[in-house]
Write a structure and sequence with these properties.
Radius of gyration: 40 Å
Number of helices: 6
Helix content: over 70%
Distance between the termini: 86 Å
Number of strands: 0
Length: 176
């Protein structure tokens, strides 16, 4: 390996390690990913600092020049990282699809529940409401003297719409 290539590899690797450290400190990169990159660039520093390792590795696998060995190691590690990243992306896409389906199911169930409640409300009798525990409501109660004229007028005012007026609101629907 030429001295200029060794210096270039050292400078790039050290700059990349500094960048990874900064990314970790600012929490823009997770530790599990930064660890791979730091080890990757430290391997490049080792190969640049000790070229004998590159000569030995090149001779071991039958490559004539150590530069090709260094680039082969870099290429192999980067391909490994791309493969791992692809696996992680696939896993996350599956999780996103599952979550989207769960949200859609829950929204559907919620709409169905709302429709059922609306249907139950529509199915309730729309006539005069019976007074609880035998109490009399309306004009009959006024005639007996058991209710005030004001209460009777509120009940009779809501009788035409099918919903009694509770006197608490101006809509005539009463408290639900």
């Amino acid at each position: 390996m030429t001295p200029s290539l060794r210096i270039f590899l050292l400078v790039v690797a050290l700059a990349a390690v500094a960048l990874m450290y900064y990314q970790l400190r600012t929490a823009r990169l997770r530790t599990e990913y930064a660890l791979f990159w730091i080890l990757f660039f430290l391997l490049i520093v080792i190969l640049a600092a000790f070229p004998r390792i590159a000569y030995w590795g090149a001779a071991l696998i039958g490559i004539q020049t150590p530069v090709i060995f260094v680039f082969l190691v870099i290429l192999a590690l980067l391909l490994f990282r791309v493969f791992r990243t692809s696996l992680k992306v696939s896993e996350l896409e599956s999780k996103i699809q599952d979550l989207a389906q769960n949200v859609a199911i829950e929204q559907f169930e919620q709409r169905e529940q709302e429709r059922n409640l609306e249907q139950e409300y529509r199915d309730e009798p729309q006539g005069d409401l019976e007074a609880p525990r035998g109490e009399r409501v309306g004009a009959a109660a006024v005639a007996d003297g058991s209710a005030s004229a004001d209460a009777a007028s509120r009940t009779e005012a809501g009788a035409g719409s099918g919903v009694p007026d509770c006197g608490e609101c101006r809509t005539g629907r009463g408290a639900l």
